[in-house]
Amino acid sequence: MPKKPPPGPRDERGVLSARILAAAREEFAQHGWAGTTLRAIARGADVDPALIYHYFGSKEGLLDAATTPPARWLDSVAATWTTPPEHLGVALLRLMLGAWADAEIGPVLRAILLTAAHEESTREKLRRVVEGSLMGASRVGADEQDRRVRSGLISSQIMGLAMMRYVWRVEPVASMSEDDLVAAMAPNLQRYVDADLF
Amino acid sequence: MPKKPPPGPRDERGVLSARILAAAREEFAQHGWAGTTLRAIARGADVDPALIYHYFGSKEGLLDAATTPPARWLDSVAATWTTPPEHLGVALLRLMLGAWADAEIGPVLRAILLTAAHEESTREKLRRVVEGSLMGASRVGADEQDRRVRSGLISSQIMGLAMMRYVWRVEPVASMSEDDLVAAMAPNLQRYVDADLF
Questions:
Q1: For B148, which of A163, A172, A187 is closest by C-beta distance?
Q2: Judgement on whether residues B93 and B55 belong to the same structural domain of the protein
Q3: What positions does the DNA-binding region cover (chains A, B) (predicted)?
């Protein structure tokens, strides 16, 4: 169904909707689905609550938009999976470090991880993001079951790094250089990609 | 300051306080610190709110009690760190899998991870639990900095497994047997314990 044209010029819409999304990520992460009101988000974004309905339709629509990574994230994931398998450990780690450092993608990933702690539909979305980004390893594994196990192990290391470094900020992992992390961690990821595991 | 004797017989106190703690873990994890009321916890535990004050003193005291692992958890952690370094990969993984399967320890760990997503004092406690349990690796590393880096890497793998398997329940990691997990993952932990990383 086509949406009504936005009020005001196009770039104003972009600015306002980015502000609403940033405020929404903060509120949903802090207070969960049930504890978050559109009024509080409107206050955080300094906009009229009616504008949130106008742009996103509903609280559900807003949560969905706030936790959906931009399309170019999917592009970079797809590009990473074309890496020759023997370099996938490094490539997956660089993909993840780059995504978190990205001003558009990082906050979305953070919102997903924080909100997934207490909101089942976001937990479901997290599973889809993990499956879609870290488990699309069609070139990994001898068969479907092997591929799924290897992708799950890769995910467990990547997501653990994300929680320690970006969400909980536990030192020294939070402050290690990207190069040090790649040196220390990529061989472990590579083992999950192609070593004999069992 | 000595506490007043509990109302009712000793085992009744144990039963009621365990029920209050279980309800508190659920509420704090779901609704965060600000969104949780002692009244809701009392309702969940089917007790009078006054009893919560009587047992735990305050909302702060209750959160603290709900997210403090039992003392025997610290004992098993200390015992694990006496394992010969060349077996630490397996030992740490078994420690963690055993703790999550434990009816008393598992719910506390879960409450810490879920509540840490949106409550700073619990995030601080998580850092202390990680440092105290996974980073007490005095026999690991060539010096203090090396020990901290290795412990951080070990933690990132262990905590990632915990999130994937027990909190987000992403398959197939959530359902893999403990033996399969040990076979697949312990060599990676062992590399963080004693291999050349940089």
A1: A172
A2: no
A3: 37-56
With the C-alpha atoms ordered A131, A135, A137, A142, is the resulting torsion angle positive or negative?
negative
What's the pLDDT tens digit per position in A146-188? 988 999 999 999 999 999 999 888 899 999 999 999 999 999 9
* A127 and A39 fall within a common domain: no
Number of residues that make up chain A: 198
CB A63 within 8 A of CB A33: yes
Amino acid at A177: S
Is residue A81 domain-shared with residue A60, that is, in the same domain? no
Q: Considering the domain boundaries, does residue A97 fall inside one?
A: yes
Tokens coding A94:
């660089």
What is the least distance, in Å, from the CA of A151 to any CA of chain B? 9
Whether B3 is covered by a domain: the verdict is no
User: Which pLDDT does position A190 carry in this prediction?
Assistant: 96
- Is the residue at A46 inside a domain? yes
Residue B1 falls inside a structural domain: no
Instruction: Say yes or no: B125 contacts chain A, CB-CB below 8 A.
Output: no
Which residues between 170 and 189 in chain A have a beta carbon less than 8 angstroms from any beta carbon of chain B?
A: 170-173, 176, 180, 183-185, 187-188
User: A85 and A158 in one domain?
Assistant: yes
Which residues touch A146 (CB under 8 Å, ≥6 apart)?
A: none
Say whether B171 and A158 touch across the interface (CB within 8 A). no
Range of the structural domain that residue A52 is part of: 9-66
ipTM > 0.90 (yes/no): no
Cβ separation B156–A157 shorter than 8 A: yes
Cβ atoms of B189 and B154 closer than 8 Å = yes
CATH number of the domain at A146, please. 1.10.357.10
Q: Look at the block and give the residue holding tokens 């320890």.
A: B105
In angstroms, rounded to a whole number, what is the distance separating the alpha carbons of residues A134 and A97? 13
